[in-house]
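Quick log. Single chain, no ligands specified.
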Amino acid sequence: MPDRVSPFTLEQIGTSAVRFPSGAPIPTITDVSADPYARTRISKDAQVEGLLFWPQEKKTYPSLVLLHEKWGLNAQIKDLANRLACEGYTVIVPNLYGRQGGMVTANEEVAMELMSRMNETLLLQDISSCCEFLNTRDHVKRNVHGVIGFGIGGSLAIRLACQRKRLRGAVAFYGRMLSPPTVLKDLYCPVLYHQAGVDDWVPVEEVEQLRQAAKEYGKQVEIRTYDGLPHAFCNETRKDVYRPEAARKAWEATLAFLGDCFKADQ
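-> predicted structure:
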């Protein structure tokens, strides 16, 4: 995806590792400062670990939870987080494999095994806790969140959009659909879905189910189909499937969609 003129440059983006409880109250900066043992106490709660990216100009920003593909929290997803931060968002990237040791892999067999061991219920708790963590940051607009995911992360993005009421928007790149489709009656925010025309992971029938369910339940779902393109066509590290022109168009459509979702919060 070629560079575009963004509000911020990479030099203006701050990055830090984050760790906080899943499904439990998130300590604020004030809480941690007032408790001398906060940084050394071992929590009994499961912990979410990830990375945070934000523009360092002193103001408040809408935020995004970015969900990685089956490969884990690798350099490619970090690059995407930086790109989104350059557009004026605070971005948190949870390690979806944190409960499995936080692995990153380039091996297909290992990635499929990691993905098969994911516990969706616990992951959705972790992802929802990311939104609560963002609410404790002084550079984040409270409860002004969106979610964007790729592959398995795209599947989870749609699922979160059917669960978290205070979500502004969700973007899914070639994620699998929800089962059963009736859960879409609880969709709380607009969704943009990027469909690979020749996807060996997401059956065409599943995307059609999304289309029909959105129509049946009166939900705002936009499906953009990229004819003849394979799964993961936006992943520039996979030269066998990467399609730069389509990736550029998908990225621009995503930024326009997010801009509309957050328009009332600017």
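The CA atoms of residues 22 and 122 lie 9 Å apart.
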